[in-house]
Fold this sequence. Notes:
Blueprint: H1 2-25, H2 37-40, H3 42-63, H4 70-88, H5 94-107, H6 109-112, H7 117-127, H8 129-142, H9 151-172, H10 175-189, H11 204-213, H12 222-243, H13 246-256, H14 264-277, H15 283-301, H16 305-316, H17 328-337, H18 341-370, H19 383-389, H20 394-404, H21 409-426, H22 434-446, H23 449-468, H24 470-482, H25 486-500, H26 506-516, H27 518-527, H28 532-549, H29 558-567, H30 571-580, H31 585-594, H32 604-609, H33 612-638
Helix pairs in contact: 1-3, 1-22, 3-7, 3-8, 3-9, 3-12, 3-23, 4-5, 4-10, 5-9, 8-9, 9-10, 9-11, 9-23, 10-23, 12-17, 12-21, 12-22, 12-23, 13-14, 14-15, 14-16, 15-16, 15-29, 16-29, 16-30, 17-28, 18-33, 20-21, 23-26, 24-25, 25-28, 26-28, 27-28, 28-31, 29-30
Amino acid sequence: MDSVIRRLTLIIAVIGTLYHLYLVIHPYTPLADFHVSLLDLTQIQRAAHVFLVALLGYLLSFVRIKPRSIIGGMPLAVMTVVFMIEFLRLDISTSMKMFAVIIWALTMLPILIPALQKPSNIAGALLSFLPFVYLVVNYETLIYRSVMPEPWDMIMSFSEILLILGVIFRLSGPIMPTIVMIFLLYNLYGNHVPGLFSTPGFDLDMMLGKMYCETEAGIFGSITGVSLKYLIYFTTLGAVVTRMNFGQIIANIALLFVGRSPASPGRSCSIMAVLMGMFSGSGAADTQFVATLTKPLFEKVGYDKLVAAGVIATVGSIAYITPPVMGSISFIMVELLSIPYSSIIVMAIGPMLLYLLGIVTYNELYVKKQILPQLEISTNIDFSYFLRYCYVFIPIIFIIIMIYRGFSINITVTAATFLFILFAYADPSIRPPFGNLIKALEEGIIGLLPIASAVIAANMIMSMMVISGLASKFSIILMNISGSSILLATLLTGVFSLILGMGVPPIATYVLTSALTAPTIQKLAIINGIPEEAALLATHMFLFYFAVLAEVTPPVALSAYAASSVMGTDPIKTGVFAARVALPKYFIGLTFILSMSGTAILILPVLQSMHGFEAFFFIAVRFLFSIMAVIFLNVAVVGYFV
C-alpha cells in the first residue's frame, strides 16, 4: 500500500509542477484559443492550486510524515468542535449535517487519536476533490452567493476550511491552524468581547460564503494567488538547481575564494549561503545544505560546535533577503503594495550586505580571539574550475535583466529553470540521469507545500481581520500604548513579530504584522518627517526583516533546528548562539523606520525623495556609520579585547 501511494504521490506531484509551468506558456499556445477555465481563469487556477496543496499534503503525510503528538493539537481540535457545532445549527438538511460531522472526524479526530492519522490521510486526499470539483462546476454563479450562500456552498466551504487546517497541522504543526481558528471564532463571538475589541458578531453562513465563494478574499484570495503566481516557480527553480548537480559546483566555487585561513569555514558558508540564496529563497533548506558541506571544515579548524552551528543558522536565513530570488514575503509585498519586484530587490541589497557583514565580522573576530589553526584541505579546485563552470550564474544574470526590463516574474523564473536544465544536460561532466529531472519536478511542488499551506492560512486570517475590522482596532491600541512614540511602537512591533514568529512561518508573521501594525508605524513615521511613500516602503521592509529574524531567534528557530540536526548540537542552544552571531542584525531593521536617514539603508526611499549627489551622499554617510556600528557591536559581542 505504501509503495503504491508513494508512486501516486510522485506522479501527481510531477503533474502538478508541470501544470504550473504550463500556465506560464499557455497564453502563447494554440490551446489558449479554446478558453479552458482550468487554464484561463484566475479563480479556477487558484482553486486548482489549493486542491493540489491539499491533495499532495495528505498523500505526503501518509508516506513520509510521522503522526504528531496530541498535546499541541488539543486546542485546535476543541475549537473545531465549536466551529462544527455552530455549523450544525444552520438551517440545512440532516444529511448535510451528518456529512459535516464525517468531515470533522476525518480531518480533526486524528489529532486526538494519532493512530488514526495515517489512514485518515487517504480519506483527506479523496475528500479534497469535492470542494474543487464543486467550485469548477459552479464558479460562474458562486461569486453572486458570497453573502447569502446556498446549503451546498456552505458544506463545501466548511469542508475546504477543515481540509486546509488538517493539512497545515500535518505539515507544520498545530500553531498556524489554531491561530486561524482563533480569528474565525473571534468573528463569530466577537459580540461577547468587551471594550474596543468588541464586534457585532457575524453569522456563520455569511463567513462561509466569504471564505469559499469570493475570488479576492477567503481561501482563494490574492495572497493565495502569490503562491500560484510566484512561489511555485522559485521552489521548482531551487529543486532543479539541486537535482541538476549545480549545488556542489556552487559550493566548490565558494571554497575557491576563501583560501586556507582559520576563518575560511565561516567565510565559505557565508558565500555558499549568499550564492544558494540567489536561487532558492528558503532559509531552512539553505541552512541544511550549507551545514552538510561545511561541517568537516569547521571541525578541522576547531570551531566550538555551538558557534559553528550558530554561524550556519544565521547565514542560512540570509536567503530570504538575498536578491534576486528572495523569500515568499517579498512577493506578498508586491501584491499588497502594488510595487514592482525590482523595487524590493533594490531595497533588500543594503540590509543583506549589512547582515552579511555582521556574520563575516563575527567570524573573523572569533577566529582571531580563539587563535585557531590554518585550514588544511586537499583540493584540486583552482581558478580554471571557476572559468569552467561560471555559466552557472548566467540564469541569475538573466533573471536580473528580465525583471529590470519589466518581464513577469513567473515567465522569467520559468525560463531560468529551463536554462539550468539545458546547461545540465549539455555539460557531459555533470549530466544527471533523467530520474533527477523527475525528482526535481516532484520536489518543486512538494517543497512548496508547507509554505503554500501557510500562505492559504494567512489569506484566511487576513479575510477575517477585514470582516471584523480588527486591524484598525489593533492600530488604535498600539498608538495608545506607544504614546505616539515611533521608537516604542517599532520596539513593541519587533518583539511582537519575533514572538509570533516562534509559532508560524515568516510569511504568516509578515501578513499578520502588516495588517495589525503597519498603519500605525507608517503614520508615526510620517509624523516624524518621513515622506509618505518612503514611510510605506520602510514600514513594510521593517516588518519583512523582523519576520525573517524569527527564523534564527530562540526558542523556536527553524534555521537553528536545521543547523543543529546536521551539526549534532542542541537546537535551543544553537538558537541562542544564532541570535548572538551578528547581533547587530536586530538593530539594522529598527533603523529603517526611525528617521529619514535610516531609510537610506533601503536606498529606494531616498532616491524617490532626493536626487543626484545629495541622494548619493545621504546614502553613503548612512552606510558608513552603519558599517562602523556593525563592527563595533560585534567586537563587544565576541569580547575581542577582553
